[in-house]
Amino acid sequence: MSFRTIQSGGVAAAIVLTFAAGWAAPNVATARERTPDAASAPMAVPLGPRRTIAVGAIKASGGFASTENWQAGTALSSMLAKTLTESGHFVVVERSDLGDVLTEQQLQATRVTGGGAAGPTVKMIPAQYLVVGGVTEFGAPNQGGGLNVGGLGLGGLVGGLGVKSQTGKISIDLRILNPRTGEVLNAFTVTRSVSRTGVAITGDYHGVSMGGDAFSRTPLGEASRLALVDAAQRIASFVAQTPWEGRVVDFDGSEMIVNAGAEAGLSPGDRLRVERIGRTLTDPDTGQVLSQTRETLGEVVIAQLEPKIAHGRFTAAQPGVDPQRGDLVVFVSGSQP
Q: Which of helix, strand or coil describes residue 139?
């Protein structure tokens, strides 16, 4: 069908539709689209190696919990983890499926699964930051307007043909936590709304998998993507305010090995300050760290990289005090060009 004139109250209206072969999302308006610009502000780049971050539960309660049989909170957690990974500024560690990881480790430790002799149980990579939150708005109301032809069945599609507008809106409250103490370090809200208006086959989101390609082409899918990009930018801006920290793995008197390497983004020539934690004061009720003293031991300059460790030359700040395994290393500056 290419052209049809419909009389309504003595007014003639021309509706033009074009159906392309292999059209993947027939239930989404495409004739005229109004979409907010994608988050175009450059993402803040945290100084030094990539930060380690975990995405915890994003809870969706009430009507948001299972819209269209989607588990909205679970899906948004996975989508945020993917967005942070693709930014290239974070090492995202698994937490949502941690039970499966621990079960596999237990099976390997007891030699139930193959792979040779059982080795020691590997500890999980600790996250420097944990992101959690809740969905406060999530929906895609349809708004009709203009002329409409209802009840048409085209190629197995059932819906209305006419001028329709569809809006997808999402709001998420997010918190960045210190996973060691549970302290809320930062909190913010991201909100995005996308509207599309056009001559189209209109229907609902039934059968669309949240997070999939079809969902991403809907107004709600686009709003979700933009909101999560906004969230990743806010997270990157916050963590850029604090220096990267790692740990001493080994020290033999001159050469130091630290627990981050090429995969974390260290480069030859990077300078790290070596510190030792001294007196630590904790809350007697919660165990939260209230205050710490740190002693500067010296500086290490990275000379050689492996995927997960780095070797460097250590220069002491004062004679007679050598670094030990577990001491802190704090990023000071990058390699000089």
A: strand
What is the dotted CATH code of the domain comprising 28-97+126-239?
3.40.50.10610
- CB 220 within 8 Å of CB 79: no
335: Cα within 13 Å, side-chain hemisphere: 11
Homologous superfamily (CATH) for 245-333 = FlgT, C-terminal domain (2.40.10.410)
For 180-288, list the strands marked E by DSSP: 184-202, 245-251, 255-258, 271-282
Both structure tokens of 191:
């909100």
pLDDT for residue 230: 95
Write down the domain spans for the chain: 28-97+126-239, 245-333
The H or E element spanning position 169 is strand 157-177
Rounded to the nearest 10 degrees, what angle do helices 72-87 and 219-239 cross at?
A: 50
Q: Is the pLDDT of residue 55 over 60?
A: yes
DSSP structure class, residue 112: -
Q: Map 36-80 to HEC letters.
A: CCCCCCCCCCCCCCCEEEEEEEEECCHHHCCHHHCCHHHHHHHHH
Stated pTM of the model: 0.66
Interacting residues of 235 by C-beta distance below 8 A, sequence separation 6+: 53, 84, 129, 131, 174, 176
